[in-house]
Amino acid sequence: MSSFEETSGLSFEVFPPKTAVSNQKIYQTLHDLQDLRPNFISVTSSNRTLNFENSTLKLADYVQNTLGIPGVVHLTARYFDKSQIDQVLIELKKLGIKNILVLRGDLAPGCPPKKDFNHASDLMTYIKSQDSSFRLFGACYPESHPESPDKVSDIHHLKAKVAAGCDCLITQMFFSNDTFYQFQENCALADIDVPLLAGIMPIVNRAQALHVLKQSECHLPAKFTLMLDRYQNDPEALRATGLAYAINQITDLVTNQIAGVHLYTMNQPAVARYIYQATKSLFTATCSPY
Ligand code: FAD
Description:
Layout: E1 9-14, H1 20-34, E2 41-43, H2 53-66, E3 71-76, H3 82-95, E4 99-103, H4 120-130, E5 135-140, H5 151-163, E6 166-171, H6 177-189, E7 196-200, H7 206-216, H8 222-230, H9 235-255, E8 260-264, H10 269-286
Parallel strand pairs: 1-2, 1-8, 2-3, 3-4, 4-5, 5-6, 6-7, 7-8
Helix pairs in contact: 1-10, 4-5, 8-9, 9-10
Bound molecules: flavin-adenine dinucleotide.
């Protein structure tokens, strides 16, 4: 794990805004996150807009070169061909961005996929063959990817992803740390030895909960469902318990010396700040990321 020690600690994910109004807000959001001194900020990309240069790349440039925080661009293998990837790599080099989260992406209506890269690992192999200095992040799934027929094939393909050049893994969100620890053990048994960053999604309202859970197909522990049901008509209480739940998860993970926590911020710096304030002393005591 030593080659990626700089990712120990807290990192954030943001997404490019979909409207002009939120477009103005995102820069303030990024400034607010800057104070929290994350190890990096990753910027998602959408296969619906395919507007990579004007959204993902622009924000990652801002993170990297204006805020001085390492930026990570998300790049979806299915929606780029080789010549487009070559262009993206040139742009990233120009901007000094070395970190790419390489994903397969999902099929979206009206967005036919390109044919050069079928899986994230195909794109990783290609990028490393073009320029081995890029640091590649990959996605992984403590509950297995929904398309995987079983855990064995999921881990098998994950190992191939690491062999293809993945330097660090970030998990899909999960709400049971035991599931994460079991997955971590399975990775260790398969000799998957790159750092594993735990993806944590603080749930702060019911609509958000239902939306992200539908998208990710994550399993919910009974105590989590109870919380959603009990406070469904009390937004303030739901927010408080959702934050407490995420802080509990992080406290347990950091105590168990995981490599790092990647917070799905949902572009809400106040949520990230609250969690940072509650957990920063734990990180300082264990992995000193700040
Ligand atoms: P892969 O690694 O290609 O795996 C997908 C499935 O194929 C798995 O079941 C795997 O076991 C299997 N598989 C892998 N290799 C092979 C092979 N060689 N042969 C046969 N089967 C194989 N989506 C976006 O559109 N934009 C984003 O910004 C984005 N960010 C994300 C960030 C994180 C941290 C995570 C966890 C997910 C993100 N996603 C994003 C979603 C992601 O694109 C989907 O989950 C997608 O379905 C799978 O992507 P992957 O990179 O894990 O795919």
